[in-house]
Design brief:
By secondary structure, the protein is mainly α. It contains nine helices and two strands. Pfam families: TPR_10 (PF13374).
Length: about 220
């Protein structure tokens, strides 16, 4: 990548600016370009993960709520039992290759959220589910998975995996994601910047595990 070109992290933040200007298509294109550039920075054809040294400082992510005008579809989604988490993540402007796991995971998540804009409740969420899963895999394979600064991103991923799975009728995957979210809430240290209203949002959604169990019993064949 040309030294004068924006970094993947800078492209991510530029895409978020486009999103807040209502330029959804342009934002999607730039998120995709940022993902491609993370591969170029690493010099591999396929994405590979880097284990972050324990001495490396943790870059800080900042969750920002989508503007109201981009949530005109929310009334349709609200009829889904599990509401989507509507924050996207701003990444640090200047990060090294050792931080690329976290940046890439954030970009995949942001692209999935952006791709959901304008969808109706009957649409398939297969692509979004795959993007969320890729983001989770990157964090699982990196040294950031247990870092408190990533807790909000992990919770957002669990919630939106549950939401996309539920919309596509994958009850077992929905339940597994909600259980993981509850585990994170109850056992993992959180970054001080996490807002209490976000914590309450996630806790309320974990209560829907009982709804998943009821759906499973209805859908299961009689013995």
């Amino acid at each position: 990548m040309n030294s004068c070109s924006p970094s993947p992290s800078q492209q991510n933040n530029l895409a978020i600016e486009l999103l807040f200007q209502g330029k959804v298509a342009e934002a999607k294109a730039l998120f995709r370009e940022a993902i491609a550039n993370t591969k170029n920075v690493l010099g591999y054809a396929e994405y590979v993960t880097l284990v972050v040294p324990s001495s490396s400082p943790s870059p800080k992510l900042r969750g920002v709520l989508l503007p109201q005008e981009l949530k005109e579809y929310q009334a349709r989604q609200d009829r889904c039992a599990i509401p989507m988490f509507h924050k996207v993540f701003v990444t640090p402007e200047h990060v090294g290759p050792e931080n690329l796991d976290l940046v890439s995971a954030s970009i995949f998540y942001n692209l999935a959220v952006t791709n959901s804009i304008g969808k109706n409740e009957c649409a398939s969420y297969n692509l979004e589910h795959r993007l969320y899963s890729l983001s989770t895999e990157m964090l699982n394979a990196s040294g950031y998975f247990h870092d408190p600064s990533c807790c909000l991103l992990l919770l957002a991923l669990c919630n939106n995996i549950a939401q996309s799975s539920f919309c596509d009728g994958r009850v077992d995957e929905t339940r597994a994601a909600l259980r993981e979210m509850l585990y994170l809430l109850e056992s993992r240290p959180r970054d001080d910047s996490m807002e209490e209203q976000d914590v309450q949002f996630f806790y309320l959604n974990t209560l829907l595990m009982k709804h998943c169990d009821q759906m499973q019993s209805i859908c299961s064949p009689a013995a």
